[in-house]
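User: My collaborator and I are trying to settle a disagreement about how two of our proteins should look. Neither of us wants to argue from intuition anymore, so we agreed to look at predicted structures for both before our next call. Could you fold the first one, then the second, and keep them clearly separated?

Assistant: That sounds like a sensible way to settle it. I'll keep them separate. The first protein:
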Amino acid sequence: MKNVLVLCTGNSCRSQMAHGYLNSYQDSLAKIYSAGIETHGLNPGAVAIMKEDGIDISHHTSNHVDEYEGIEWDYIITVCDHAKENCPFIPAKNAERIHHNFSDPSKVKGTEQEIHEAFFKTREEIKEFCYEFIKEELTN
């Protein structure tokens, strides 16, 4: 079984959504972890937008990348530029590092509708990315 780490700044929103989709798209191909270079707690907007798509991430926790020291990673996926640029060194001999910067919907200010649209847009981008990742990387 492969070990996949999804890394973001605060492990509260984008990495949590990716964690949810990666788990939902595969049954037993990989163990999915998500972490941040900081911990900001689980974002309620991320929980709500995932629930709209039938995925419950409310039981997830916000974890620091150091909590996973010693795991042999097959993939390390960074989902924001800040995490990619500021991540501490993660020793992983054979890990494939993949980066995709998704916009941070938690930073959007505006009406409830505008904020919802930002979460929806980011969720849909992450959903597509995760589907393609599973199809191209884990099922070959």
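The second protein, kept apart from the first:
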Amino acid sequence: MKLWLKLSLTAMIVVTLSAMLCGGIMLYSSARSGIDSAVERALTDRHVRFTGWLNSMTGRVDTEYSFTAKRSLAKYLITKYADDGTVLLCDEDVIYNCSPIAPSDYLPLATDDEQYIIKDIGQRALLISGSAAAIDGERYRFYSVDDITDVYSSIKELSYRFTLVNFAVIVAGGMLSVILTRLILKPIATLKHTTGLIADGLYHNRAAVAENDEIGELAADFNAMADAVEKHIGELKLEAERRSMFTSALTHELKTPMTSIKGNAETLLATKLTEQERYDSLMAIDFACTRIERLSQKLMQLIVLRRAGELELKAESVTAVLEEAASACAEQLKARGQSISIACGVDTLLMEHDLLLDLIINLVDNASKASPSGALIELIAEDNQITVRDHGIGIPNEELDKLTEPFYMVDKSRSRRAGGAGIGLALCKEIATLHNAKLAFESEPGVGTSASIVFSKEEDCI
């Protein structure tokens, strides 16, 4: 059963019971008041008539009167005070009776006190009242029989009206309770709709907090929970993307050292070398293998953890890292008929050596891919930045802001032919961020491109 229906039925039951209870109390009070008023009027009227007759009787009767004379006097005087319901008895003798019933059968009057009783006789409700008094040794009983059927008829009519009014109140209250309940619970329906959207994967949806009540507090708590869920889902997605990016980045970054390994291995296999040349080739292979090992560890740290606070930056020689980058790219540049130059005007920078080296190698690799055979790649360190400059095909200005987006390629066909995957500059941006630096690009189509690692002032050379 729906919550709104449960609450509506509960409200209807409460309204019904309240209306019946209040109406019943009012009906009973009204009926009691009507009956009491009728009894009071009848008793007052009977008392007046009885007192008048009694005073007249006691004032005229004489002890010398015979039994018959007393009866005649009593009958004569009662005619002056009697109405249609008056009955006068002397002991068991009926002196006067205008009533269709014998009231002594219903109200014996064992004492002289005023008494009354209400009896349903036939289709009528009769109020029988009476009192007794002794006059000259004889006991007289004075009765008054009043028809109060109209009082009970009024009560029945009132009860009928009460039933109709009560039914109308219950129906109206029920309808109103349904309407108000639906309105009050509308935010819950909205909240339910929002939970459905979130369950379908639309985690950005939030419930509207319309009122500052319990439902509003529930909506606010739900939104807080949805924020936590969305954040957690986002973190899981980011983690999955990081792992995927790690795989792609590692594959991408393995190409340069693998090229060096392959080139030196082919040289060892196919060329007769001197002992020194053999040693140099083996050292180059060892260096490339060592770099692959260190790089895989650093990439895992970079892509999975991705928090600069977990990297320890140390002041290291800029010249050393530039020369190491040039040496790592030498075989690749040689294969393409290109050369590299170094101009360093900075002593040291705070860096994580392997990651910064990888960043520079990435920039050199991109510059090499964009340059023709015989071109010069320049490595320049000055002020607070390291720049890799080429004299290749250049990049349109509208493309510069997109360079660091993962898997974005300016010229997809050329990048694929060159073995690119579109992940290098995105990785470079991450490494630069960990060094409190940023990547800046300047380019002119047909002239060349400058890619700079711009360190913050706090990370300037020391």
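Some points you might bring to the call about the second protein. The longest strand covers residues 124-135. Residues 3-60 form the longest helix (58 residues).
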